[in-house]
Design a protein that fits this description.
Blueprint lengths: L5 E3 L11 E4 L3 E6 L2 E7 L12 E8 L5 E6 L8 E6 L4 E5 L4 E6 L6 E6 L6 E6 L3 E6 L4 E6 L5 E6 L6 E6 L4 E5 L5 E6 L6 E6 L37 E6 L3 E6 L4 E7 L22 E2 L7 E5 L5 E5 L8 E3 L13 E8 L5 E7 L3 E6 L4 E7 L5 E6 L6 E6 L4 E5 L8 E5 L7 E6 L6 E6 L4 E5 L7 E2 L8 E7 L17 E6 L4 E4 L9 E2 L1 H7 L9 E6 L5 E6 L3 E6 L4 E7 L5 E6 L12 E6 L4 E5 L1 H6 L5 E3 L4 E3 L6 E6 L6 E6 L4 E5 L4 E6 L6 E6 L6 E6 L4 E5 L12 H11 L17 H5 L22 H8 L25 H32 L6 H6 L4 H16 L6 H9 L9 H17 L3 H11 L2 H11 L4 H6 L5 H17 L3 H10 L3 H10 L3 H11 L5 H17 L2 H10 L3 H8 L5 H13 L3 H17 L3 H8 ...
Parallel strand pairs: 45-49
Antiparallel strand pairs: 1-57, 2-3, 3-4, 4-5, 6-7, 7-8, 8-9, 10-11, 11-12, 12-13, 14-15, 15-16, 16-17, 18-19, 19-20, 20-21, 22-23, 23-24, 24-25, 26-27, 27-28, 28-29, 30-31, 31-32, 32-33, 34-35, 35-36, 36-37, 38-39, 39-40, 40-41, 42-43, 43-44, 44-45, 46-47, 47-48, 48-50, 51-52, 52-53, 53-54, ...
Length: 1511
């Protein structure tokens, strides 16, 4: 196993035509989810000899949605550049060395589906989208061209390697076109033949059509004429072959000169090794191609089941092909292959890299067609990690893609020796646990509540427990069986049983010998043993102590219960956490202190970890349960919930924790001390595991689809991020893909397969039975589940152009946006309905009594009978007879003519009829006629059928009935999402607060504020709360200007200015600064104005920057700095030295006065433009600037930032001169010089010297006067740097082949007969690598006569100041410390490596020969001996570092405070000049230089150079 970090990355994205690429030298990249992972392949990977020669080296992070395309720049010198396209609509160009975005564009309006970097034009990127739009983008000139060729979906495109203007484009419907981008996308050929998606296009690597002898297909003579017209003969330069791969299962090779197909290759149906093809399952296919460079007669293609084929095009009519890895079983991909890309390593091996649906990246040797290595990857969250206690080094990984991976982390030959298990899983694997003693026995739990057992040594499907959990399986644990396991004697029970804890809060005990039997709920035993009557808590975690005698259960309420076997007697309850317990871990038993095994660590949904020592409780075995409320140790530092804990098996009391704050933390629990913090993940950590063999090595998994192996010794942070750091980490995590509602699109616009797999690679259908199941739940679902406690995902819907579909249970902002959309929809639907009703009324009003009316229109006989029945009823003196009553009931309409009771019956029947026919309003009117208004209102309210008319009539029934009716109507309107109308009705009964609250809770803030402002007192706190709530939501949605208005309305002007500045652009910052100034927030105003000026500075808008700084008086000092920076930049541009020379610079119209010295020009402009004409003003400006401290410069400091910081120091120096404070002037100048020196910018340093010290440092020495001044060491350093710069300029003037006359030397040619040999020192100093210092010619017929001028002599004499013995001693001690530290680190690394090799060679991997470990160890020792003549012992190194520290402590602080040029470097240069040009350097100086080198040049850096000079 290698001692370097490793990454198990996310799976390469599926169904993309170009999502991986590689460049010569061994750099490979592939798109995975929203980022690109970089892999170094070959010798440059720096892996241990004998292992797979590749290493994941980094990630390009910046896109917010799936990356759909990735391509490198294949031009020598630009291999570090690459480009990506994404579903977020952008194309980004990256520098892989810095892993940063160089530039980007968002020209496409639709989903980008293809991308390619032109192989001939080094700055041209071509991209195409699903609407058929093509953009050509020229990077260097930031120019673009829009081409619309065909209104079809582009699937792939490839630029020609022979003709810079030709691009081949493949479409979804099978059409292929070749266009000329120089002629505005003119179609050169339209190639018809395929009838399905074009997956790949490959140009023949050789130009012309003589490289292949292909028999043209029959019937190809009379092919369709391109574009429907005869085209003149194609120029010879456009002749080339083109290969296309399509979903129609064919590869076609086309002639570009004739524009037609010349041969067709039909994919063969191969018997898939390891099983046949299920005829009921439609075979997937993605046909990608690679035409090897320099091999026009060979073509590589993918096939149905993941096989790769090498086609022989010399006999294309025979359809001859060779299968990759034909001899090796199981080396091929098991699923379809998406991308192929070639790679040439540093040792000139020709490799081919492939990405596949099986989630593997494979590397193939093109010479042998065998698989060199495989990089596995993850297609889901890494939920669980578990090291086997028996098979040392076997790490089980449970992921969200429905697969279990077993990673042999200690394999010597293969760093990624991973075996995959997928049968019977079919869901996210959320929990794993190895059997403590049985080899290969792995228990797993899934998202759908399944518990199973895998035998990892066999290929059998897993055993599945017949008892499922109702929700996700949280955790698994092996422990002793509890009594009520199963009927039978003791002999029938296994020694260990499996316990599982599910999301519904139940712990089940499963019999591993009989998983088909019913599992036992241990709550029954707990309740019986402890006589518990109350409801048991919801369990969320289970953990057994290593000795199997104690069980801990974590609960949803934050409590932890401790039970003792055999009957699970409750002995202790820990009331420490107050949120759901996620993880419990017991300390191991084999530490140096046995009592440590009683330590139990726990983590919950709050961020604090508690460690409890349960020794006293367990040993005392109390009769009644004890409650613990004080922890043994408290570990604080994380800022989000704790998800996993693990004790180190190598240390006492060392714990690792994983948290939702995105970091893993190592703790010394006994000291409560954080030791190191890992921040490599881009997501929230879900699981953690400590390597069982390597004390320095930890594995972690997260929701970024990654498992990282990392080393504690390599972490720079000691504790989790706090404050701003934590915010940055949160931003980094939030840059991951967010769950978003699926948009409805027309089927023709998007590939059906892509719809299934739109977010990468997690939505593979689970119905397929012949291959691994790819997780039935999408990435989006997975992420939504994990983000439940976070902000509601509906925030983003505010700017959505389409209606958002939401379930009734959804909360927060999403609901508000939905209601708006629903409201609009309702209005649209109601309008036509009202119109149709109006038309009906115009025609004829609906009858109120339709049944009565219809009964009065029956036959004449029936009507006559009605009269008789009515007469009988009306004129019978006594009670009507039964038959008459029956007749009246049948003839309801007679109620109009009889008594009131009969009329009521008629109205009741008529009303029921209206309700059945859907006319409740007519029913209500009938009830009103009856006089039962209150009953009408109650019935309507119960049925949700209240109307405006009914409510308007409610006052007739009394005031209280009216108020009740209005409230009921308002509730009804809320159910119908008519919140504004409901609020209006509440206002009618003077319920203003209720109306405002109703509108606020449903996010109708504008309406709520209008009502509150109109009806409430101005000082009412409700109004301010409304403004602040609306402002917060608008701020989250990015509507900063409107949010600022809200804050101003709430009289919170400070927040208004802050939110306006959030966007960060110049106009926003300026407006925010002005606003802050108006409201009296002067400090904030000054800060914002300065930020605005700095933004304008980046755009080189000097005028705008000064205007921004004018906003606040306290920024006068900064105006001086910006003025000096502008003048210096102009000065550098005039000399053509500035990197940022730009014609777009907007300079102030200050008088140039270039004939005057630079400092005088600066002070003159300050006086005229800023009225700085008195010492008091200068002193005030100095005080303003003095408190601002900038960090020291490095070689990576951007040039604009460096210049700003240098000018800040120079401004302080000039202001000090103005007030005659020469000490401060020297220090300011020195800081500016040191800044340029540390950044490696020699040019700027020399310009500072020439501009501010044109006559040297003598005038400063005169001003300082007293040599014992505290500033004397600073002055000496400044003078030394000045001389150091002059020395280099002098040396460079002599370094050319023919030195020319200058201020330093006079050169003249003279003829000579002798041939002089010239020696020149290579790389005089490790810091000096100037290309100008080239070797002089070894012989010449003309000899140069070079003599020193007076200035040259003075300069060389001044170099004596550089021979500071004190500084040489200090620098030597510092170099010694650095060298010893480097040696110690190397010794530790070699020791760890040798120990690891020994343990692995003697370990469980019996197939690996022991010789390899010995060879690697001996070779590393040999290398060590070569570097040092004698091996150095640890005590000797410790002694050296102690002596060096003691020497440094003896030097005065004044020497250590100010840097000094490297003394030995200056000695070497002077000795070199003296050896080349005799007489230039005096013997005395040479002698002094040699003595210094001899005395202090003991370190390796200078030994070789000194020896070279001496010989």
């Amino acid at each position: 196993m290698g001692q370097e970090p490793r990454t198990l990355p996310p799976s390469p994205n599926w169904y993309c035509s170009r999502c991986s690429d590689a460049v010569p030298g061994g750099l490979f990249g592939f798109a995975a989810r929203t980022s690109v992972f970089l892999v170094r392949v070959g010798p440059g990977a720096d892996v241990i000899p004998g292992t797979s020669p590749f290493r994941v080296i980094g990630e390009l992070v910046g896109h917010t949605e799936r990356v759909s395309g990735f391509t490198f720049c294949h031009h020598p010198g630009q291999y570090n550049l690459c480009a990506t396209s994404s579903d977020d609509g952008t194309v980004k160009i990256w520098d892989v060395e810095t892993k940063t975005v160089v530039t980007e564009h968002a020209l496409h309006q639709h989903t980008i589906s293809a991308l390619h970097w032109s192989p001939l034009v080094k700055d041209l990127l071509v991209s195409g989208d699903e609407k058929g739009v093509v953009f050509c983008y020229w990077l260097n000139r930031n120019d673009s061209q829009h081409l619309f060729i065909e209104p079809r979906t582009i699937f792939c495109l490839t630029c020609s390697p022979h003709h810079e203007d030709l691009v081949a484009i493949g479409y979804k419907d099978g059409i292929v076109v070749i266009i000329d981008i120089s002629k505005k996308g003119e179609v050169i050929h339209r190639l018809r033949g395929h009838d399905d998606e074009i997956h790949s296009i490959a140009w023949c690597p050789l130009p012309g059509e003589d490289c292949l002898f292909i028999n043209q297909e029959e019937n190809s003579e009379e092919l369709e004429i391109p574009n429907g017209k005869v085209i003149a003969q194609t120029p010879v330069k456009k002749r080339c072959y083109l290969a296309t791969g399509s979903k129609d299962q064919t590869i076609r090779i086309w002639s570009c000169s004739r524009g037609r197909v010349v041969t067709t290759l039909k994919l063969p149906f191969l018997k898939r090794r390891g099983g046949g093809i299920d005829p009921t399952v439609k075979e997937r296919l993605w046909l990608t191609l690679h035409w090897p460079k320099g091999q026009p007669t060979q073509l590589v293609s993918s096939s149905f089941g993941g096989e790769l084929l090498l086609w022989d095009l010399t006999q294309s009519w025979r359809r001859k092909y060779t299968l990759f890895s034909a001899s090796s079983e199981g080396q091929n991909h098991s699923r379809i292959v998406f991308n192929l890309c070639p790679l040439q390593t540093e040792d000139d091996k020709q490799l081919l890299l492939s990405t596949s649906m099986d989630r593997d990246v494979k590397c193939w040797d093109m010479a042998t067609l065998e698989c060199c290595w495989t990089l596995p990857s993850l297609g889901g969250f890494a939920y669980s990690l578990a090291f086997s206690p028996v098979d040392t080094g076997c790490l089980a990984i449970g992921a969200g893609d429905g697969m279990i991976r077993i990673w042999n982390t200690f394999s010597i030959k293969n760093n990624y020796d991973v075996k995959i298990f997928w049968q019977g899983v079919k869901s996210k694997v959320t929990a794993l646990c190895w059997h403590p003693t049985k080899e290969g026995c792995l228990a797993f739990g899934t998202d759908d509540g399944k518990v199973g057992l895998y035998d990892t040594y066999s290929n059998k499907p897993p055993q599945i427990s017949s008892t499922y959990h109702k929700k996700t399986v949280y955790s698994l644990a092996w422990g002793p069986p509890v009594p009520s396991m199963a009927p039978g004697g003791e002999g029938d029970r296994p020694s260990l049983t499996l316990y599982s804890c599910g999301g519904e809060g139940i712990v089940l005990q499963h019999n591993p010998w009989k998983l088909s039997g019913e599992a036992f709920d241990i709550n029954k035993l707990i309740r019986d043993t402890n006589s518990i009557k109350y409801k048991l808590p919801v369990h969320t975690e289970i953990s057994w102590k290593a000795d199997g005698k104690i069980m801990a259960l974590g609960n949803e309420d934050g409590s932890i219960e401790i039970f003792k076997v055999p009957n699970l007697k409750l002995i202790c309850t820990i009331q420490q956490h107050h949120k759901l317990v996620n993880t419990i871990s017991w300390h191991h038993e084999y530490g140096s202190q046995p009592e440590l095994s009683y330590l139990m660590a726990s983590g919950s949904n709050n961020a604090v970890i508690y460690v409890h020592n349960l020794q006293t409780v367990i040993e005392s075995n109390p009769e009644s349960p004890v409650t613990i409320t004080e922890p043994y140790r408290t570990l604080s530092g994380h800022t989000a919930k704790i998800t996993s804990l693990a004790w180190s098996p190598h240390h006492d009391g060392r714990l690792i924790s994983a948290s939702y704050d995105g970091t893993a933390q190592v703790w010394d629990t006994l000291q409560e001390e954080p030791l190191c913090n890992f921040r490599g993940h881009r997501g929230r950590l879900l699981c953690i595991a400590w390597s069982p063999l390597d004390p320095d090595c930890i594995y972690s998994g997260a929701d970024d689809f990654c498992v990282y192996k990392w080393l504690t010794s390599m972490q720079e942070h000691s504790r989790p991020p706090q404050g701003k750091k934590n915010i940055e980490l949160e931003k980094k995590r939030l840059s991951q893909p967010k769950p978003k509602p699926k948009k409805k699109k027309k089927p023709i616009l998007r590939v059906p397969v892509k719809q299934e797999l739109c977010d990468g690679n997690e939505e593979e259908s689970v119905k397929e039975s012949s291959g691994p199941v790819e997780n039935g739940v999408s990435d989006q679902e997975t992420e939504e589940e994990a983000r439940e406690p976070e902000l509601p995902c509906g925030v983003t819907s505010a700017v959505s152009k389409e209606p958002v579909i939401c379930t009734p249970a959804s909360l927060g902002f999403e609901k508000s946006k939905v209601t708006i959309n629903n409201k609009v929809t309702l209005l649209k639907k109601e309008a036509p309905k009202e119109k149709s009703e109006a038309l009906i009324k115009k025609r004829k009003a609906r009858s109120m009594l339709p049944l009565s009316t219809s009964l009065d229109h029956r036959s004449k006989e029936e009507l006559h009978q009605d009269c008789l029945v009515l007469a009988t009823a009306k004129h019978s003196r006594a009670e009507p007879k039964e038959d008459v009553s029956a007749d009246l009931e049948e003839r309801l309409h007679l109620g109009l003519f009889t008594d009131r009771a009969t009329l009521y019956r008629m109205i009741e029947v008529e009303g029921k009829g209206h309700l059945e026919n859907g006319h409740p309003e007519l029913f209500h009117q009938l009830m009103l006629w009856k006089g039962d208004l209150k009953g009408v209102l109650q019935t309507a309210a119960e049925r949700g059928e209240l109307t405006d008319n009914l409510v308007a009539m409610a006052p007739v029934a009394g005031y209280h009935v009216w108020v009740w009716a209005v409230e009921a109507f308002a509730k009804q309107l809320c159910f119908q999402d008519q919140y504004v109308k409901a609020a209006s009705h509440l206002l009618s009964i003077h319920k203003v607060y209720e109306a405002v609250e109703l509108l606020k809770s449903n996010h109708f803030y504008r309406e709520a504020i209008a009502i509150a402002k109109a009806r409430l007192r101005p000082e009412d706190p409700i109004l301010k709360d409304l403004y602040l709530s609306w402002g917060a939501i608008l701020e989250k949605d990015g509507h900063y200007a409107l949010a600022a208005k809200c804050y101003l309305g709430a009289t919170s002007a400070y927040d208004a200015a802050k939110v306006l500045a959030k966007k960060g652009d110049v106009t926003s910052l300026r407006t925010a600064a002005e606003l802050a100034s108006i409201v009296g927030e002067n400090e904030l105003s000054a800060t914002l104005a300065l930020r605005c000026a700095q933004e304008l500075l980046l755009a080189r808008n000097w005028v705008g920057a000064q205007e921004a700084l004018q906003l606040h008086e306290s920024l006068k000092g900064q105006r001086l700095v910006f003025c000096l920076l502008e003048l210096l930049s102009r000065h550098l541009e005039e000399k053509q030295l500035s990197e940022g020379k730009s014609s777009s610079s907007s300079y102030n119209a200050w008088p140039a006065g270039s004939e005057r010295p630079f400092v005088e020009r600066v002070t003159a402009v300050w006086k005229s433009a800023f009225s700085l004409d008195s010492p008091e003003q200068s002193q005030a400006a100095f005080q303003q600037l003095q408190d601002i401290k900038y960090p020291s410069a490095t070689s990576n400091t951007p040039s604009k930032q460096l210049l700003l910081h240098i000018c800040h120091d120079l401004t302080l120096a000039v202001l000090s001169q103005q007030v005659a404070s020469w000490d401060a002037a020297v220090e300011g100048l020195l800081r500016a010089v040191i800044r340029s020196y540390n950044s490696g910018n020699f040019t700027i340093m020399q310009e500072v010297h020439s501009a501010f010290l044109p006559e040297g440092c003598d005038h400063l020495r005169d001003k300082l006067g007293d040599h014992q001044s505290p500033t004397t060491p600073a002055f000496k350093s400044l003078e030394a740097f000045f001389i150091y710069g002059r020395l280099y300029e002098f040396w460079w003037s002599l370094s050319g082949p023919c030195p020319e006359s200058s201020v330093w030397v006079r050169a003249a040619h003279r003829r000579t007969a002798s041939v002089e040999q010239s020696q020149q020192l290579d790389n005089v100093s490790p810091e000096e690598t100037d290309p100008k210092a080239s070797q002089p010619e070894p012989s010449r017929t003309l000899e140069l006569d070079v003599r020193l001028t007076e200035e040259g002599e003075q300069m060389l004499n001044a170099c004596k100041e550089l021979f500071s013995e004190e500084h040489a001693g200090l620098q030597n001690a510092q170099r010694t410390i650095a060298e010893v530290q480097e040696t110690l680190a190397e010794m530790i690394r070699l020791h760890q490596k040798s120990q690891l090799c020994k343990s692995t060679a003697n370990g469980p991997d019996k197939n690996e020969p022991e010789q390899e470990a010995e060879q690697s160890l001996s070779s590393s020792q040999n290398q060590c001996k070569e570097e040092k003549n004698e091996p150095v012992s640890l005590p000797e190194l410790t002694k050296r570092i102690t002596e060096a520290n003691e020497r440094i402590a003896k030097f005065p602080e004044s020497i250590k405070t100010w840097p000094f040029p490297d003394v030995l470097e200056c000695c070497l240069i002077l000795l070199h000049i003296g050896s080349q040009y005799s007489g230039f350097v005096t013997q005395e100086m040479q002698q002094q230089a040699q003595e210094l080198l001899q005395k202090y040049g003991s370190t390796k850096v200078y030994e070789r150079h000194y020896q070279t000079l001496c010989t």
